[in-house]
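tool_call: predict_structure(chain=1)
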Amino acid sequence: MAAPKKGRRAPGSQGRPGRTLALILIAMVALVGGMFYSGTLAPRLGIDLAGGTSFTLEARNQPGKPNAINETNLKTAANIMDRRVNGLGVSETEVQTQGDRHIIVNIPKGTDAAQARQQVGTTAQLGFRQVLTVAPGARTPEPSTSPSTSPSPSAKGKGQGDKGDKDGKDKNGTEDGASSPTPSASTQGRAVTEGLKKAPSATPSASASASAKPSSPPSAPTQPDPAGGISADLQKKLAALDCSTKESRAKGAEQAANTKSSDDIVSCSKDGQEKYALGPVEVEGVDVSGASAMLDTQQGMGWIVQLKFTSQGSKKFAETTGKLAAQAQPRNQFAIVLDGETVSAPSVSKAIAGEATISGSFTQQSAEDLANVLAYGSLPLSFKIADETTVSAALGGEQLEAGLIAGAIGLALVIVYLVAYYRGLALVALASLAVSAVLTYTIMTLLGPAIGFALNLPAVCGAIVAIGITADSFIVYFERIRDEIREGRSLRPAVERGWPRARRTILVSDFVSFLAAAVLFIVTVGKVQGFAFTLGLTTLLDVVVVFFFTKPLMTLLAKRKFFASGHPWSGLDPRRLGARPPLRGGRRRVTAPIETKEA
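tool_result:
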């Protein structure tokens, strides 16, 4: 019989178990180190375990939409709010309808309540409006001259106002004359340009930029600004608008947001340094098909928000920017108005087709917040906060304590069973459970700041159920090893030959568990998603632990005398297992039956 080739390993054998163990230990150290480095040493808790804030939003009627408050619109608004603050379904922020005009929002402790309140309360009514005139943000006295005799806004920036010749340049106007003061951070720092893929090295003539200084305006308009100025009513509203405080800006934004899209409005800039008289909406938010925040490395604009338009929206945007490019300042500017507040008001030097980019003065968080609001769409209703209360975690704490006691009792029973039935092998199972616990805890802790994962009571239940799933994988492997020993093999071949069959069973079992968790996560909402997410996570970790810890550890222990010799307390004693005679030369030694002769 030909000798076996050198270097050929038995089926399912593991060549370097020590390296595999070192790999998973390094991963554990890295995760624990990352947890300490992040400063987060415990998983983020949900509102049922940590308490938090609950506030009630009341729907309000909108101009021109007397029947807008209905069950359909209320559910749509709740779904949009939920996607804004709870995109993955695991942050534990709860959004649910109550009655026919209220939405309840529960925010767990540790979440930025002010940011979440802004995300759910922002209607996200986006509109692109032409700038008619611009003035400093403070309230100004009503003009003494009739608007019918006021000069029209022009490229020189002269109009009507109250500043006289205070600055030597704005003698006859504040409202239109303010179109050429030194731009503030909001106007100078924000710009809308063509999509990055359109203009990797855009020039001033190929962009709609708000960063251009007054001394270097865009290309000369093909026609002067039309004569006539703005209406007396709009001029009066602009003079009365006060953008100097946060409260006055919020009041002005609310009034502008409640105006029909076909009407002219007055609006404050985000920082309050300017106020604008704006024409009707030229391009609406429904014409925006998507928005994303990204870091611009091509043109060095920092964090930007890239807008994608629908086919109809792209056509409208190109027509609007083309029309504005042919006019003089400030009417060659268009304002990006979000919920009545002017985000930016760039000037236009040419028609822009395709995608648009809002750039400048963004941090990563502010860019992502704006993109998040725009991407998920505008709310069909506007809301006001009717009530805000603090939620106690007392009841959840009692339930958690009871759940942990039940989990501890279950774990103790599992340990007793393993020690009584598997004896020495119980040490392998307990070590594997400890590794799984460390991985689960550190990953859950790191997922808190990473994706907003919050641990709630159902998620704790999912983690407790995972103990049984993990223990079941060990039992499957141990029983396969015992079957091989019963067939007459020694421990080392039994460990390697039993692994392929155990591996298939473990993978099939974990696949079914993971599939159930995935389906549950997709088809459910609220707290049940926390249970499904935890169950799916621990099922994946079970595969990692069995493949990268339990199997290589058994390979190493099979070389130890305590286990290899079949010590009675090893759990692998051939006599207790009813082993057959050992296999030699690939054939099982069969004992011939003893024949008895009758007398």
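agent: The longest strand covers residues 126-136. Proceeding to next step.
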